[in-house]
Every structure is written in C-alpha cells, then in structure tokens.
Specification:
By secondary structure, the chain is of the alpha/beta class. It has 4 helices and 9 strands; from the N terminus they run βββββαββββααα. The longest helix is centred in the middle third of the chain and has 16 residues.
Length: 184
C-alpha cells in the first residue's frame, strides 16, 4: 500500500459482532486505522485470519465490512489470511448479490492464501511476519528443519520494537507456527 502513511498506524480494539437471530458471536481479528499519505483522511485495514475452510465465509466478511463501515464511516481495506492446509484450490475473493438483470452488490477483499505460496519466495525477507507465516506455506517434509532454522536466525538478527513483536506473536498464534521466541 503505497498510499499508507507508515507512521500513522494505530491498532484498534477488537470488534465483537453478535447475531442475535442465531445466538452467535464473532470477533474481527485485527483492525488498524491508518492515514492516507499526503492527506488528512484516514481508513481502516481489517485483517481476518481463517484457519479452516468455511462455507459462506465471503458472506461473513461482508457482514464484518458493513458493520465496521457503519460504526466508523471510513473506507475499509479488507484482507483475509487463509492459513488452512486444505483445500489447495484458490478461494473466493468476493461476495455478490445479484438478479438475472441487475447486480445489486459486489464486495471484494484481498486474500493471502498461504497453502498456495512457496516458502522459498519468503526465505530471505527480513520480515518477522513472513517468517511466522512460512510454516503454513508449501513445505516439503524434508525442508521443515531448514524453515525453522531460518525463522530463528531471522528473529535473532532483527531488532524488533514491542509493537512489531506483538504483531509477530499475533501472526505466529494465528498460523499455529511452531517457531517461538521462547525457544532461544
């Protein structure tokens, strides 16, 4: 996102949504407020982690979007990190409501589907989040020790401030990463 002002990022409290009709409770995983570069206006980044394949997930994303938009009245950039192992096929990236003669709604969101990415493409990035998420990418069993060693090497070499470390821990827990700073 080249239009994001990097120093403006603020992590917001978790949003909790209740569906009183069926008695279910949902939490938005990560919500960030950021400022547009060279402007005085803000937008939200909503990141949702999905660790299992779920029917109608796209509809749930739209519900989160609509409730967040209603509450904050800001543009929202929705992103989903799919960390499940199966299926490997590309997942949906939109939710639509349409009639044969009229498209009422088309809601789109960005995805990062980890099981479709190759860990080697992220091996040399000096990014703790990429390192934490590599465990859910396409890794042959014989390469797993190398990936863990690279993760540990990267974490030792980075000087992370508390906010970045908190974000790394969040990604680690959400991706069920086996590499832990406590291993040092």
């Amino acid at each position: 996102m080249t239009y994001l002002e990097p120093d403006s990022i603020t992590f917001l409290d978790k949003e909790i949504f209740t569906d009183v009709t069926v008695g279910e409770r949902y939490e938005a995983d990560l919500l960030v407020q950021a400022k547009f570069q060279s402007r005085s206006s803000y937008f939200l980044i909503h990141v949702e982690n999905q660790s299992y394949n779920q029917a109608n997930f796209n509809q749930r994303m739209f519900r989160y979007f609509s409730r967040l938009h209603e509450k904050y009245n800001l543009p929202i950039y929705p992103v989903v990190v799919f960390s499940y192992d199966r299926p490997l096929k590309a997942t949906e990236t939109s939710y639509q409501v349409e009639f044969p003669d009229f498209k009422v709604l088309e809601f789109n969101y960005r995805i990062l589907q980890l099981n479709r990415l190759n860990w080697r493409d992220f091996l040399n990035q000096r990014n703790p989040i990429a390192s934490a998420l590599m465990a859910k990418m396409q890794i042959a069993p014989e390469d797993r020790p190398r990936v863990k060693a690279q993760c540990l090497r990267l974490l030792v070499s980075l000087k992370l401030d508390p906010a970045k470390m908190q974000l790394w821990r969040y990604a680690q827990v959400k991706s069920q990463k086996r590499c832990d700073p406590a291993d040092f």
